[in-house]
Amino acid sequence: MYWFREGMCFLPTFLVIWSSSTFIISYIIALVRHDVDVIFPYISDTGADPPQSGIFGVMTTVTAFTSMLTMYARYKFVQKLEEIQGCRSKLNKWALWIGLISCLGMCFVATFQVTLVTEVHDAGALVFFVCGVTYTLLQSIISYRMHPYGSSMALCHTRMVISIISVLASFPMIICAFFVPTKLHWDTHDKEFAFHLASAISEWIVTFCFVFFFFTYIREFKCFKLTLNAEMLVN
Q: What whole-number distance in Å separates Cα of residue 55 and Cα of residue 52?
């Protein structure tokens, strides 16, 4: 059996590859078409104009739904570990709901383009990033609480480091964005260029922190499978 077919690890594996491809493909197409600048455009800017806008929308939506499935699988895995340990916590359920809200925000980002419906797009992005960062923090805490079941201490530390980096990067990303107008091309002499650069770099950092965080799920997801049971209701 191939390693990616063990347990449920195909979910985070696909998510990591697909989500990374989403951002990179949109960026390359936008760059070739000269729709964005070479140096750190906003991720959404790379999918603002057609044809990459369609590609970005579809691939981001698939990423959102795959993220939902992965989060639910993680929720059920932690739930089983809690049964083994004989403890129950609301933290796991809170993490799931916050993660799902983050995915909903991602769907808004994919559906409403930044140059056409800026307010809705930005609101969706804010929900996505804030809830996404919160999700990684909660899951990092859960990993420590479940140790030695599921995760090694090294993996717990890795997740926490990724979470802390995403938290620290989210502050300049959000704060600097308030001073940045919506436009796709920048000149280094623009007075808001420094804010744009700080915000855009932070956005890329936070986004790939999410990718690397889900990458840490792969080994863990080899250890379990989810099954669907059907029951016949007899009148």
A: 5
Separation CA 27–CA 21 (nearest Å): 10
Q: Which among 21, 26, 31 is positioned nearest to 208, based on CA atoms?
A: 21
Which residues have C-beta within 8 Å of that of residue 42, sequence separation ≥ 6? 114, 199, 200, 203
Instruction: Categorize the per-residue pLDDT at 2 as very low, low, confident or very high, splitting at 50, 70 and 90.
Output: low
Amino acid at the residue 108: F
Residue 1, class by beta-carbon neighbours within 10 Å (0-12 exposed, 13-18 middle, 19+ buried)? exposed
Distance CA 180, CA 121 (A): 15
Q: How far apart are CA 145 and CA 150, in angstroms?
A: 10
Q: Which amino acid is at 157?
A: H
Distance CA 134, CA 32 (A): 35
Tens-digit pLDDT profile for residues 113-167? 887 888 999 999 999 999 999 999 999 999 998 888 778 899 999 999 999 999 9
For residue 132, which of 67, 72, 199 has the smallest C-alpha distance? 67
Provide the phi-psi class of 113: left if phi over 0, else alpha when psi is between -120 and 50, else beta.
Answer: beta
